[in-house]
Amino acid sequence: MNVLDRYIIKKLLSTFFFIIMAFIIISVVIDFSDRVDDFIEHDAPVMEVLIGYYLNFCIHFGNLLSGLLIFLTVVLVCSNMAQRTEVVAILSGGISFNRYLRPFFIVATILVIIFLFISHIVLPSANQRKLEFENTYIRPNFYISDKNVHREISPGEIVYFKSLSASKQLGSKFSIENWEEGELRKKVFANKATYDPDKKIWELKKGQIRKYHKDGTQSFEYFAEKDTVLNLTINDFGHRSSISSAMKWDELNVFIAELEKKGFSDASKHQIEKHQRTSIPFSIYIFVLIAASIASRKLRGGTGIHLMLAVVIGFVYVFFQRIASVSATNAGVDPLIAVWIPNIIFLGLGIWVYIKSPK
Predict the structure, then answer these.
(1) Residue in 82, 94, 97, 102 with CA at minimum distance from that of residue 8
(2) Residue 180: its pLDDT value, please?
(3) Does 223 share its domain with 174?
(4) pTM for this one?
(5) Which of 40, 114, 135, 195 has its CA 20 to 30 A from that of 276?
(6) Alpha-carbon distance 27 to 3, whole Å?
């Protein structure tokens, strides 16, 4: 590592940490102004606000924006070097463009390793603390907005609720179907189904049991009250999407498998969370390639033009991320493919910009 490498690495790291601290401070101020009423209303202790919420908020926010912030960092550093004709001097001195890029990718590798560690090891624990704080002091009441909910809780066993109330542990217009070899054998109806968390049972009221026999006949049984045990709790219907961000890798895999087994339609949201833990840190390589290639050229508009390009590219990348997430949750696209599509598209852009960059 020569003087040039140390010079660029020092500028990149110092600029990056300055930018990420600035963004985090601004985000904390904005978030605090939005949450302060909740903190006061629920008597949140000051230390819990600072350590239980905002420390973990900073870790989460910094990791989430890592790719875009390193992109902005490289644009600023390269643009300033280009405007001072340092890049021209470096290339004119016999150093190839590939060699010039080496310190940028050394920094990218350092940051990728750091943020992979944060995503897979540090962030789940931080999000767990943050989620516990939110459940206690920000949104202690738990709501379920879904209507006409179907869940397959075991092979051939399908539960239906017209509506659910988490606060009352109550479901209305309940039914459970039992299927064997593709044929309906039994169906239980009830006007209300109340979950008892202590006994771990469902209390059914005013219902009937209908059995379908193999000879084509049916039998009925009416009941006023009936207790039943199901592999299901009221909380299974109201998991927030953020709950998966508080799970370690193995726990998340088990959680997703259970959701898929029970027929939960939002399992793909948690798969997206799982795959983004790797895709977001690796986007740093792509952003470094794009930023160094477009900002190393001296332009008449100066750094302002480079920053404008950085903002536009950043917004387009976030837009592609949102489109990919929606396609995974609503269009049936494999979450692994959906998560990596923006990186693949922008890798192609990075290669094209690199080819067109001054050598």
Answers:
(1) 102
(2) 83
(3) yes
(4) 0.71
(5) 135
(6) 36
